[in-house]
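User: Let's play a game. I give you a shape written as tokens, and you guess the letters that built it. Ready? Here's round one.
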């Protein structure tokens, strides 16, 4: 099934959910192998380093320096990777409230890492965008 592209439908049906746990961003050298025993939810290679996003307790057990303690909000609507304006609308609403967001799109859903201490507020703002009670 193809993902949704219609912005109105995406916003109405996004059904944001907060995932369990605290997530953090870590880096390892660009040419380093993945440390044994860790399972990041996201890995992204840049020329300067490889970024790993993982649960905070896992990063601390592995001895990895980390930053940006965050909660993961998943927009559960099946969005198309070609949808236009969805993340702009969502991140714009959070920006209006002064909440930073690090967004990641995957094949089925969009995911938002928001500051841990503002996660409940971010979730409420997104729920308010759906136009549902």
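Assistant: Ready! My guess for every position:
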């Amino acid at each position: 099934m193809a993902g949704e592209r219609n912005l109105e439908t995406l916003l109405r049906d996004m059904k944001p959910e907060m995932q369990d746990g605290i997530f953090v961003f870590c880096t390892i050298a660009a040419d380093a192998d993945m440390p044994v025993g860790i399972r990041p939810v996201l890995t992204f290679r840049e020329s300067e380093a490889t970024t790993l996003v993982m649960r905070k307790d896992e990063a601390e057990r592995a001895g990895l320096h980390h930053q940006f303690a965050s909660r993961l909000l998943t927009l559960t609507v099946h969005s198309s990777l070609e949808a236009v304006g969805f993340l702009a609308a969502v991140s714009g609403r959070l920006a209006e409230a002064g909440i930073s967001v690090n967004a990641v799109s995957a094949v089925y859903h969009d995911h938002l890492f928001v500051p841990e201490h503002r996660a409940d507020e971010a979730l409420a703002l997104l729920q308010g965008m759906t136009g549902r009670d």
